[in-house]
Amino acid sequence: MNMSARNDYLLGNDAQKTGDRSQIRQLVDSLAQLTAAQRIAGIGSWEMCVENGDIAFSPQAMSILGQQWSRPCLDNLLGLIPENDRLHLLKAYSNALNSPDPIEIEHTLALRDGRQRKIRQRMLRVADAADGSQRLIGTLQDVTSYKATS
User: What are the tens digits of pLDDT across the range 74-119?
Assistant: First the structure.
């Protein structure tokens, strides 16, 4: 099934009934394009609710992390990061909450099979959500191969 046909299938009949089919199709197509671009670039994205630590990871971010959590949260992520890097990452999150500019950090990620990856994260505080909660959005990229050659 090609991407256009797949997106038509995902839209279903509900969009036809409400008349919002073209707007919904644009959103579905945009999401498919973003997902493909992340896979091509090897960059995943995430959004974290600061109050409870819940994180929504893109499929590419989950692939980079080598995980499939039923309820992704900050504690899950921190459990994959060696203690020294963990402290630096928490400081970067704190800095991002207090800065109008993106914050960047590189850290180690320990996979379950014993391998390690070098990860580059960029993060930014976004305007308070409608519910008043603070959120961080960010990207993560596996830079292990770049670090090995530099």
Answer: 998 999 999 999 999 999 999 999 999 999 999 999 988 889 999 9
Distance, in Å, from the CA atom of 58 to the CA atom of 141, rounded to the nearest integer, reads: 12
The range of the structural domain enclosing residue 63 comes to 42-149
Total residues belonging to the chain = 150
Same domain membership, residue 128 and residue 84: yes
What is the Cα–Cα distance from 124 to 140, expressed in whole angstroms?
12
Q: Which amino acid is at 107?
A: H
Cβ contacts of residue 65 below 8 Å, gap of 6+?
44, 57, 77, 80, 109, 140
Q: How far apart are CA 4 and CA 1, in angstroms?
A: 8
